[in-house]
Structure formats: structure tokens, C-alpha cells
């Protein structure tokens, strides 16, 4: 006969294992990053190759907008992976008004207005995101 303590322990253990399996297979991260540009702190965001130090892409985020970066990687069999151990091979970017809210479920952003978008193929190397805070008068460049 199973005691209530053993039953609770088994249920908790099963729930923990299921949760960990879901996190492992989804990559634990959506690998999305949001940078807000305000009049006090206008931003310039760059993607830089760690191996070469070369800047692969740069965006001056217009004041009053925010930049969403969404990195993707292709794994074995063409599956998309979100693991940071696999270098990103593409980044999709969007600029949104500041009244948008990042939503890490179905949609990328909720509310607000998308003002621009694009995508950049990456060389499949380790990258870093460099964020510069610009002088307020420079931040108007887009």
C-alpha cells in the first residue's frame, strides 16, 4: 500500500521531470531581446562576431521606439533550436513604439505599432550584442 507521503513525492518528482523535459526540448529560452530608446538614453545596438571582432549589423534605435531581436538557429534535420550552445544563423529584428510590451508566448509584441522590420543572415559564429547609449541629439538618427 502506498503512503500519502510517497504518493506526493512521486507526483512531485513526475511533475519536475516533465517540466525539465519540456524546458530541455524547447531550449529554455526564446532568445529574444528588447532594447528601449528614450530621449534620456537613445540606443545603438550592434551584433559583433566574437571570433573576428567585426560588426555584423548595427541599428540606431529611434527615440521613442524599441528594438526586438529574435535569434534563430538550425539544428539537425532543419529543426529550429533556441540553445545558446549553437551559434545563431539568423536574426529577425523589428522596431516598435514604446507602448508595446514584449510577450514571450505566442506573439512577439503586444499592443503598440510596428514601425520597421527586417532580417539578417549571420555566419553561424559566436556573437555578442553591443549596446551603446548615444548622446541625446545623436539618437534621432534611425
Number of helices: 1
Shape designation: extended
Distance between the termini: 69 Å
Using only C-alpha atoms, the radius of gyration works out to: 20 Å
Share of residues in helices: 10-25%
List the uncertain runs. Answer: 22-29
Tell me the domain tally: 2
Mean pLDDT: 80
Strand content: 35-45%
Largest sheet: 5 strands, antiparallel
SSE topology string:
HEEEEEEEEEE
Total strand segments: 10
Structural classification: alpha+beta
Structure, briefly:
By secondary structure, the chain is an alpha+beta fold. It is built from 1 helix and 10 strands; from the N terminus they run αββββββββββ.
What is the secondary structure topology, with strand pairs?
Layout: H1 4-26, E1 32-37, E2 43-49, E3 55-61, E4 65-74, E5 80-81, E6 90-97, E7 101-102, E8 109-110, E9 114-121, E10 127-133
Explain this structure:
There is one protein chain. This protein is 16% helix and 42% strand. It is of the alpha+beta class and 142 residues long. The protein folds into two domains: 28 residues; 103 residues, no CATH class. About 6% of the residues have low confidence. The longest helix has 23 residues. A hairpin with a 6-residue loop joins β7 and β8. It is built from one helix and ten strands; from the N terminus they run αββββββββββ. The chain is extended and about 70 Å long.
Keywords:
5-stranded antiparallel beta sheet, alpha+beta, 10 strands, 2 domains, 42% strand, extended, 16% helix, 3-stranded antiparallel beta sheet, 142 residues
